[in-house]
Amino acid sequence: MQVKGDPITDLTEDMGAEQKARSTYDNILLLSDDPDVNKVIQFLREREIVHFQRFGEALELLRDQLDRRNIYQMNPARSL
Q1: Pick from 38, 42, 45, 2: which is nearest to 23 by CA?
Q2: pLDDT: is 55 or 75 the higher one?
Q3: Rg value, the chain, Cα
Q4: Which residue, 5, 11, 53, 80, is most buried by CB atoms nearer than 10 A?
Q5: How many whole angstroms separate alpha carbon 27 and alpha carbon 20?
Q6: Where are the extended beta strands (E) located within the chain?
């Protein structure tokens, strides 16, 4: 987990990390024929999916809060 100080960036990056881990577990499952290993990898894969969903929910809540208060991460008028 890397922290940039921007919650939208941080949550998006966290979601990407979860997807990368899930993809890695998918690849391991394609290569493994050991049922005990597969059971553990499937558990870890499912956990990554849940984490991705929770980060997505947190991102949606954050966006709703920012929209409700009419707050933006960056004022485009100031960047000119």
Answers
A1: 45
A2: 55
A3: 18
A4: 11
A5: 11
A6: none
pTM of the predicted model, to two decimals?
0.76
Residue corresponding to tokens 């100031």: 78
Tens-digit pLDDT profile for residues 46-64: 999 999 999 999 999 998 8
In 35-66, which positions are buried (b, 16+ CB within 10 angstroms) versus exposed (e)?
eeeeeebeeebeebeebbeebeeebeeeeeee
Residue 7 has pLDDT above 60, yes or no: yes
- The one-character DSSP state at 32 is -
| DSSP tag of 5 | S
Q: Residue type at 55?
A: F
Q: Could you tell me the two tokens for 21?
A: 């881990």
- How far apart (Å, rounded) are the C-alpha atoms in residues 51 and 59? 12
